Amino acid sequence: EVQLVESGGGLVQAGGSLRLSCAASGFAFDDYAIGWFRQAPGKEREGVSCISVDNARTYYADSVKGRFTISSDNAKNTVYLQMNSLKPEDTAVYYCAAVRADDRGGFCYDMDYWGKGTLVTVSS
Predict the structure, then answer these.
(1) Are the C-beta atoms of 98 and 113 separated by less than 8 Å?
(2) Is the separation of the CB atoms in 36 and 115 below 8 Å?
(3) How far are the Cα atoms of 14, 64, 91, 96, 110 from residue 42, in angstroms, in the given order?
């Protein structure tokens, strides 16, 4: 059974930091690209960051470049999102998702599997 389990969300003040984790199981982790997406209240879901696990190629949305860092621990089948200098506009439910890297050229779209999400709230 494929599982993606997010953790690490919570309430933080503006300027603070959080590290999200996405623990994956049930598929060949090294063959996949793992992405972080977020959805704020009343807004559409948007892509935040993506990592192609086999070659560690990364992608960031312009809104988080320089503040967020995505990484993977292949031994633990876990992807992390380190979020620094958080802003109130980063408040959202954050989801991790997975797709076979070869199917999308290593990019994160039309994802195959999704986690249930973790809430990040940034207070001003």
Answers:
(1) yes
(2) no
(3) 21, 20, 12, 20, 22
Q: Is the dihedral of CA 24, 59, 119, 67 positive or negative?
A: positive
pLDDT digits (tens, 9 = 90+) for 47-72: 999 999 888 899 999 999 999 999 99
- Write the pLDDT tens digit of every residue in 72-120: 999 999 999 999 999 999 999 999 999 998 888 888 999 999 999 999 9
* Terminal-residue alpha carbon distance, the chain: 40
Q: What CA–CA distance (Å, rounded) separates 26 from 71?
A: 20
| 4, 23 Cβ separation under 8 angstroms | yes
| Residue closest to 74 by CA, chosen among 103, 51, 101 | 51
CA distance 1 to 100: 16
Which of 53, 57, 29 lies closest to 113 in space, CA to CA?
29
Closest to 5 measured CA to CA, from 76, 64, 71, 78? 78
Number of residues assigned to the chain? 124
